[in-house]
Amino acid sequence: MNRDAVQGNWKQFKGLARQQWGKLTDDDLAVAAGKREELAGRLQERYGIAREKAEAEVDEWMKRLS
């Protein structure tokens, strides 16, 4: 699924993101609002992982959505 589709349907995908990454708060998801870079940054903060790993996780998650 492309980034625009995720961003446009973010309300639907927030629940799936919460299932995938339980440490993310509602505030984290509201700030991310479907933006890949923001979501990766929030993952990096909450899980203490490298930026590259967080981006790879977001990319993989977006691929599974399609």
Automatic annotation (TrEMBL):
Q: Which residues form the CsbD-like domain?
A: 4-55
- InterPro entries, from UniProt? CsbD, UPF0337_stress_rsp, YjbJ, YjbJ_sf
| Pfam families assigned | CsbD (PF05532)
The family annotation for this protein states: Belongs to the UPF0337 (CsbD) family.
Q: What is this protein called?
A: Uncharacterized protein YjbJ (UPF0337 family)
